[in-house]
Design goal:
alpha/beta, binds cytidine-5'-triphosphate, Rossmann fold, globular, five-stranded parallel beta sheet
Length: 407
């Protein structure tokens, strides 16, 4: 199970509009069991109050090097020694510069100099600043000294411009932290083929049939597998998610395209995980022209799409095959029926009718049913934790048979 229990993390928050997102990051780290001390710069406090961070971390927030009440002048030395990791999120161009040059004029930058813990910077700034040669030089200097500086995400910035500069998603920052603090390489040597997201079936040139899948579960699986040392091929339907760095991503749209991509990469895979929510039906012959609107009782003939999981199950060989079952009633029984019908080794079943879990949400609550009769009910947790639990289960099931997967 993924955990940061017993880990001391310092979260440095600096003066960017993205400072409020650091609260979400803090909440996630606390949820994973980390002990987090928050240090805020003066400018960060203009964007968010320390009370938010004090409440979430259940610890005093460190703001002032010279506050006699906080004994901060010595605290920065104690914290520098105690910390297993210092994360600066968001990191402004100014803080990156100070860190690169070794300036120490506030609590955070003094701490950065005093510590020997690994450093993780999560930049957020305007695209023009991020691309400025001075900033690039500071980032290169920090990286050359062993610090990890994440790339900012692309998108709309507070200035209204579009480009690189957004704080990466919290899940991506958590992944980087786990990679630094909890490196478990128990999937090295595995080649994992993962499908994610929805598929889209064209109705006409402008419309399609699809479903509410966000792709978050499949992307979390890809990120966890990469962190644990696997090679990952991610066959992804359309999503709004940034693919995990180092995954081989094959973008697809229709079920047929997904099928072809999966079959083309099947031979090389040791584990196949079908997390995609495949469209079950497609319009029979989508017309080349747009269907005119306002037709009373318009009927569009549909035909089933190929069942990719069943095809993979039939050609399984020594691979370990995992399917997902999104159910609204009789969850375990329906999932077991699908496991048997499709020839999977493990089925991840969830009740999508419940609020707060499943489609579009960051959390999931699943039951793992395996071909050997096992049923494991997991508590509600983040999709990243579910991903780790699925890989733990795959490894456990494979190790219980001497020759790997039983026929
Ligand atoms: N799946 C697939 N190809 C399809 C449909 C589903 O590979 N055409 C896979 C999904 O990726 C998932 C599993 O099969 O891993 C179960 O999908 P689900 O839609 O729940 O099952 P269905 O067999 O379509 O059953 P239902 O009638 O409940 O929709």
């Amino acid at each position: 199970m993924v955990t940061l229990r017993g880990r001391e993390i310092v979260l440095g928050v600096t003066g960017s509009i993205a400072a409020y997102k650091a609260a979400y990051l803090l909440r996630e780290l606390v949820r994973l069991g980390a002990e987090v001390s928050v240090v805020m710069t003066e400018h960060a406090q203009r964007f968010v109050g320390p009370l938010t961070f004090r409440t979430l971390s259940r610890r005093p927030v460190l703001t002032d090097l010279f506050d006699p009440g906080e004994a901060a002048a010595v605290e920065h030395v104690a914290l520098a020694e105690r910390a297993h990791l210092i994360v600066v999120a968001p990191a402004t161009a100014h803080t990156l510069a100070k860190a690169a040059l070794g300036l120490a004029d506030d609590f955070l930058t003094t701490l950065l100099l005093a510590t020997r813990a690994p450093l993780l910077f999560v930049p957020a700034m305007d695209a023009g600043m991020w691309r400025h040669p001075t900033v690039e030089g500071h980032v290169a200097a920090l990286r050359a000294r062993g610090a990890v500086v994440l790339e900012p995400a692309e998108g709309e910035l507070a200035s209204g411009l579009i480009g690189p500069g957004r704080l990466p998603e919290v899940s991506e920052v958590v992944e980087a932290i786990l990679g630094l603090l909890a490196p478990k390489r128990d999937l090295s040597g595995e080649r994992i083929l993962i499908t994610a997201g929805p598929t889209r079936e064209p109705v006409d040139p402008v419309r399609y049939l699809s479903n509410r899948s966000s792709g978050k579960m499949g992307y979390a699986l890809a990120a966890a597998a990469l962190r644990r040392g696997a090679e990952v091929t991610l066959v992804s339907g359309p999503t709004n998610l940034a693919p995990p760095p180092r995954a081989r991503v094959i973008p697809v749209e229709t079920t047929e395209e997904m099928r072809e991509a999966v079959l083309a990469h099947l031979d090389a895979a040791t584990v196949v995980i079908k997390a995609a929510a495949v469209a079950d039906y497609r319009p029979v012959r989508p017309p080349a022209r747009k269907i005119p609107g306002r037709q009373e009782g318009l009927a569009i003939p549909l035909t089933p799409t190929p069942d990719i999981l069943r095809e993979v199950g039939a050609r399984k060989g020594g691979r370990f095959v995992v399917g997902f079952a999104a159910e609204t009633e009789g969850v375990a029984a329906s999932a077991r029926a699908k496991l048997e019908a499709k020839g999977a080794d493990l089925m991840v079943a969830n009740d999508v009718s419940r609020p707060g879990v499943g489609f579009e949400s960051d959390d999931n609550e699943v039951i793992l049913l395996d071909r050997w009769g096992g049923v494991l009910q997991l508590p509600r947790m983040s999709k990243l934790e579910v991903a780790d639990a699925i890989f733990d289960r795959i490894l456990a099931l494979r190790s219980q048979t001497p020759s790997g997967v039983t026929p």
